[in-house]
UniProtKB/TrEMBL annotation:
<dbReference type="InterPro" id="IPR011335">
    <property type="entry name" value="Restrct_endonuc-II-like"/>
</dbReference>
<dbReference type="InterPro" id="IPR012296">
    <property type="entry name" value="Nuclease_put_TT1808"/>
</dbReference>
<dbReference type="Pfam" id="PF05685">
    <property type="entry name" value="Uma2"/>
</dbReference>
<feature type="domain" description="Putative restriction endonuclease">
    <location>
        <begin position="20"/>
        <end position="160"/>
    </location>
</feature>
<dbReference type="InterPro" id="IPR008538">
    <property type="entry name" value="Uma2"/>
</dbReference>
<feature type="region of interest" description="Disordered">
    <location>
        <begin position="1"/>
        <end position="31"/>
    </location>
</feature>
<protein>
    <recommendedName>
        <fullName>Putative restriction endonuclease domain-containing protein</fullName>
    </recommendedName>
</protein>
């Protein structure tokens, strides 16, 4: 968590171009803020939340801890940023992400969090979600010019013009809920509404090939589509394993793991 920083009135002496990628600092009005490592609970929630948001069909760019040089002396790195994340080295200059997500756990420096929110909203962020992990878990919604709103598990978060799909509050910190929503998003990127649509396609194919065989074919195709979307290219042995698999439960398990896995070894276990 960031260390406490006073609410400086006068500009500090530092500039964003003096901070290098990897340095444990952000800047607010020229004053350095030392950023500490994230705890276990926060890191797990950050991972599943970022994967879910990045998979939304409307998202073209997203990043974790992306440095945004909002002004020459203000550098902020939200936990998750959606939009304006360039595929280039160095800081993203001039424009904050339209959607930013911050995770707050026990020990959170509230003064620094307020300063971070203010800097991002002033820099152009349209929606900022603060995911509170301390019980009761909840999400605070910050938007310029509007009162703070709070959503709790069971409710949906929306970011019109940024995300296509509503985000269940629990999916920003609960791994199972995040996996379900991520799988839906990845299937939508390939033209399926959800997993039920995959099953329906399998039933259509099943009229010609037998329902069981048609469902297996649809599951295999969905698995390969999700792997391709995630940039995970199976080697010939794994492709053969998919093609030869006649166990629908195993294929569904691989499909669910493919939506969130970082490597092929995490899918085919």
């Amino acid at each position: 968590m960031p260390k406490t920083v006073p609410a400086f009135q006068a500009p500090g002496p530092f500039r964003a171009d003096q901070i290098r990628p990897g340095d444990p600092y952000e800047l607010s009005n020229g004053h350095p803020i030392h950023c500490m490592p994230t705890g276990g609970r926060g890191s797990r929630a950050n991972l599943v939340g970022a994967a879910l948001i990045d998979s939304d069909p409307a998202v073209e760019s997203a990043g974790v801890d992306t440095g945004f040089a909002l002004t020459p002396n203000t550098l902020r790195a939200p936990d998750v940023a959606v939009g304006n994340v360039t595929d280039a080295p160095g800081w993203v200059k001039g424009q904050a992400p339209p959607l930013a997500v911050e995770y707050a756990d026990s020990g959170q420096d509230e003064a620094e969090l307020r300063a971070r929110i203010a800097d991002l909203l002033a820099g152009g962020t349209r929606v900022l979600w603060v995911v509170r992990l301390v019980c009761p878990p909840r999400v605070e919604i910050h938007t310029p010019g509007l009162p703070l709103r709070v959503c709790r598990p069971g409710e949906l978060l929306e970011a019109p013009g940024i995300l296509r799909n509503p985000v269940p509050v629990a999916a920003l910190f609960d791994r199972t809920a995040a996996h379900e929503a991520t799988l839906r998003n990845l299937l939508q990127r390939k033209g399926y509404g959800d997993l039920d649509a995959v099953r329906e396609e399998g039933q259509v194919q099943g009229r010609e090939e037998g329902q069981t065989q048609g469902a297996l074919i649809a599951l295999r195709e969905a698995l390969l589509l999700v792997l391709a979307q995630r940039g995970l290219d199976p080697d010939p042995a794994r492709r053969a394993a998919v093609a030869d698999c006649t166990d629908p439960e195993r294929l569904r398990r691989w499909l669910g793991q493919a939506a969130v896995a970082a490597s092929l070894s995490e899918v085919f276990v």
